[in-house]
# Entry
Amino acid sequence: MEQLLAKAPLSHYSPKFANKAWADTNGYTSYFNCPYSSETKKSNKGWKQWGRKRGIYSWKVENALDKYLETEAGPIYEKICGFNKITDEERIIWAQFLLSQLVRTPTFMKYEKMACEINGIKELPKHDRVGCRECGDLNFVANRDWCLLLAHDDDFFVRSDNPVLQTGFIENPETCLFYPMTPKLCFVACSMRSDWDAYADYPNESLGYELAKGGAHLYNFYLAMAAGESLIISPEHD
# Structure
């Protein structure tokens, strides 16, 4: 009876460790679409308060995300932000984390539900929101070339409530995945040549590129366009 009466978890669909870089001691600055008007409004969000929603996952999924994915992905996040080389196994975990980020947002789940209703799909995926290390789709991220985009000193990146921007179907060589990691750094799983084989070809060494002034804001345009309802920026960049 206690379990039936317990509240559904207040789940972070964008993990706290991944949002931390956008906050100062007062939290984040969020811009959001007000559902009661046609305006985009501004709000200050306290530390850990953005990128969460109650009831989008069960406790089982919430605990699995923490235990089987985020606990391992968090240190890899820090390694990438520190420009440290990661292992082949860590590439797979990072690929799993990015694909999980795609499918665990309220926006994705809303469209997924509609698609299931339209097509009469009632079965649930075996690895709901967490994914698994054996999934073949991970190769389409792990075996792409990776790069890091560094914003100009005068520029910054935003983070939206759909934090991964994927430009096409994951199996298409020309697809890119963009994932801002800090206000100054954006991870990219790059587009590849047309004959690229995700199961046979291995990536080149990751590279970094410093963007020209204004360059980050071109990416911000597309990141903001992909937002469901809100995005955050660092208060110092407001």
Summary: The longest helix spans residues 59-81. Residues 160 and 227 are 5 Å apart (CA to CA).
